[in-house]
Amino acid sequence: MGRVGSWYRESLVGHPVGRDFRRLWAGDTVSQVGTQVGGIALPLLAVQVLGADELEMGLLATFENIAFLLVGLPAGAWVDRLLKRRVLVVGDLVRALALLSLPVAYLLDVLTFPLLLVVATVTGVATVFFDVAYQSYLPSIVPSSRISEGNARLQVSHSVAHVVGPALGGLLVRAVGAPLVLLVDALSFLGSALFLGRIRHREEPPSRAGRRPLRTEIGEGLRFVVGQPLLRRIVATTATSNAASNLGGGLLVLYVVRDLGLSEAQLGLVLSVGALGGLAGAFASGAVMRVVGEGRTIALAILPSSAAAALVPLAAGRSQGTALVMLAVSMAVYGFGVVVYNVAQVSFRQRLCPLPLLGRMNASVRFVVWGVNPVAAFVGGVVAAQAGIVTVLWAGVVLEAAAVLPVLLSPLVRMRDLPRHLDQHADRSADEGGDETVDAPADGRRDSTEPAGP
């Protein structure tokens, strides 16, 4: 017990500096579990209650992600002008109210597919602001030296939610129906808002004195991302991988329930068992980065994921038991690699970027890596309506294999340690693939608050 107690006190969770992080973590955990329950209920609502086909499922996935194209870039500049905790709480409340409208509409017998698209869009816009503020808020309440630990803990919550949520959601949908299950998702956002509202850290309101036109501030975020060789490669890989997964991602429920003949509970079980890989990745990410190195982890982590993606279309025509196992293995391997990759690359981005630019940097990255999602989902729905879902899934496998190339064929594969701040020396080291670690200030950040140039 002594060793366990000592470990707990020294960890971010038990240490006094982690008080506000615990509340952020608790709010995120509640929200993530509810989101995973709702994540399986929403497409099942479309398929089972509204009879959605391939094209409509593609449209639903498109509207769920279209906010990243509509407000992805200005969201970062707006978040940098606002109190981030307030943005987080408002984002939770908006999503709760939007989702509550669906079970209410169902009970009043006025539920329609267009209403589903409206709710998907509203929750998507709120999610954009929440996610940008979320990643930008973490470095404000966690010491720079503990950012990787904080991200790893958050990934644990995400992975646990992926394990528990879909199975619970599948069982609940089978028991009470998809519309009422969405109440759980709405209540989870209310619970998250309560936890976030108890965070004691008080931000200083961003100064208005140095505020520039919105277009100028948006441009600074884009130039930061585009101007750094390592970030360009990471963004290219992430965007291509997201496009690959979203080609068939919006069709997965239709494919599993209709084409493979699995039940709602079996679908939830597949997603939950597969998510165990993500949970393992969250726990293993620190050890992997210590053994393999930060740069090499980013370059190599998603190689197994790209191979495992092929098991999804290969499950077509198999027995239910075989298909169940193939899907679970695919998602477990995929989840492990993606989570390890995300912990490494997100922590690197957060350490590298000056605090005043974090919102715009995160928004710029998400505009690119998530902005491809609605396009890919729409294309997947259109192609599936003509050529079938399996064809779209195989196209996603090919694109997933291509996604690893920007980081695999880059200096990252030869870099154990990554730069801690940006200067010309760091960029030369990145281009040359050196193993050097660039010295950073004690807090892990550059002293200047001005955006770093290439």
Automatic annotation (TrEMBL):
Under the heading InterPro entries, the entry gives: MFS, MFS_dom, MFS_trans_sf
**Top-level taxon:** Bacteria
For membrane topology, the record states:
Multi-pass membrane protein
Q: What does the UniProt keyword field contain? A: Cell membrane, Membrane, Transmembrane, Transmembrane helix
Q: Where is the composition biased (Basic and acidic residues)?
A: 442-454
Where is it chiefly localized?
Answer: membrane
Residue numbers spanned by region Disordered:
424-454
* Keyword match ATP-binding: no
What residue intervals traverse the membrane?
57-75, 179-199, 234-257, 269-291, 298-316, 322-344, 365-385, 391-413
Q: State where the protein is found.
A: Cell membrane
Q: What is this protein called?
A: MFS transporter
